[in-house]
C-alpha cells in the first residue's frame, strides 16, 4: 500500500495573470503524472495477496514467440555483407605470352574463367584485413630497390568486399614486384 499525501492549498481571491495560471496548470499536470508513476511503481513492488502467499513460486511454460513480420524478407540479410558481389576482372599483358589474357573471377561462391579460382579467392581473403586494402598502391614515400622485374602489367577492376576496385600493377621496381607477388595467384607468378 502506498501512502500519497496531497496537500490542498486554498486559492486566494487575487486574480492571476494568464502566464501564472498556465504555470500552475503545468505544475498540477506534472504532479498528477508523477503521482501516477509512483503509484504504478509501488504496485509492482507490493507483496503478493494473502491468497497466494503460501502457494510458492508459480512456473508455467512460456508461449512461443510470434514474429511481428514474416521471416522470409529478412532471410536475405543473413549473408555476409558485401560477399555476394565479389567479382573481379583481371587483364594481364607483357608476360611473354605465358600468362597474358583477360580473366573473370567470382568469389563466395567461386567461379569464372580464372585459372585458379580457389587459390585466387583464398589469397584475397587472407590479404583482406580490417583497415587494409589488398589492392592499395605503393605509398609514395616508400624506399624501393631499383630492381626491374620485366614489362608485365595487370589491371584489376570490379568489386571486392563491397568496395569498387580499379588497380594497376607492374614490376618496375622492388616495391611494385612485392605488391604483385602478394596477389599471386590472382596475378600470375612471374618469380
Outline of this structure?
It contains four helices and four strands, in the order ααββαββα. The protein is α+β, with helices and mostly antiparallel strands. About 10% of the residues have low confidence.
Describe the model.
With 191 residues, the protein is an alpha+beta fold. It folds into two domains: 35 residues; 101 residues, Subtilisin inhibitor-like (Subtilisin Inhibitor), CATH 3.30.350. It is 27% helix and 15% strand. It is built from four helices and four strands; from the N terminus they run ααββαββα.
What is the topology?
Layout: H1 18-45, H2 72-75, E1 87-93, E2 101-106, H3 117-127, E3 153-160, E4 163-170, H4 174-182
Antiparallel strand pairs: 1-2, 1-3, 3-4
Gyration radius over CA: 36 Å
Largest sheet geometry: 4 strands, antiparallel
Strand coverage percent: 15-25%
The CATH architecture assignment of the largest domain turns out to be: 2-Layer Sandwich
- Counting DSSP H or I runs of 4 or more residues, the number of helices is 4
Helix content: 25-40%
Task: Give the N-terminus to C-terminus distance in angstroms.
Answer: 86 Å
Total DSSP E strands:
4
Which class of the largest domain in CATH terms?
A: Alpha Beta
- Strand ordering within the main sheet: 2-1-3-4
Indicate the overall shape: elongated
Order of helices and strands: HHEEHEEH
CATH topology of the largest domain: Subtilisin Inhibitor
Q: Say what oligomer this is.
A: single chain
Amino acid at each position: 500500500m502506498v501512502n500519497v499525501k496531497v496537500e490542498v492549498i486554498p486559492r486566494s481571491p487575487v486574480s492571476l495573470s494568464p502566464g501564472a495560471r498556465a504555470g500552475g496548470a503545468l505544475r498540477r499536470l506534472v504532479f498528477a503524472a508523477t503521482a501516477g508513476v509512483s503509484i504504478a511503481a509501488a504496485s509492482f513492488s507490493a507483496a503478493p495477496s494473502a491468497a497466494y502467499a503460501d502457494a510458492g513460486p508459480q512456473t508455467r511454460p512460456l508461449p512461443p514467440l510470434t514474429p511481428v513480420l514474416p521471416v522470409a524478407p529478412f532471410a536475405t540479410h543473413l549473408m555476409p555483407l558485401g560477399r555476394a558481389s565479389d567479382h573481379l576482372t583481371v587483364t594481364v599483358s607483357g608476360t611473354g605470352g605465358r600468362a597474358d589474357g583477360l580473366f573473370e573471377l567470382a568469389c563466395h561462391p567461386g567461379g569464372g574463367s580464372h585459372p585458379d579460382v580457389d587459390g585466387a579467392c583464398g589469397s584475397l581473403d587472407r590479404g583482406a584485413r580490417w583497415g587494409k586494402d589488398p589492392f592499395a598502391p605503393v605509398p609514395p614515400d616508400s624506399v624501393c630497390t631499383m630492381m626491374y622485374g620485366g614489362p608485365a602489367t595487370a589491371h584489376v577492376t570490379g568489386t571486392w568486399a563491397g568496395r569498387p576496385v580499379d588497380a594497376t600493377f607492374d614490376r618496375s621496381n622492388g616495391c611494385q614486384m612485392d605488391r604483385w607477388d602478394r596477389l599471386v595467384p590472382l596475378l600470375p607468378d612471374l618469380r
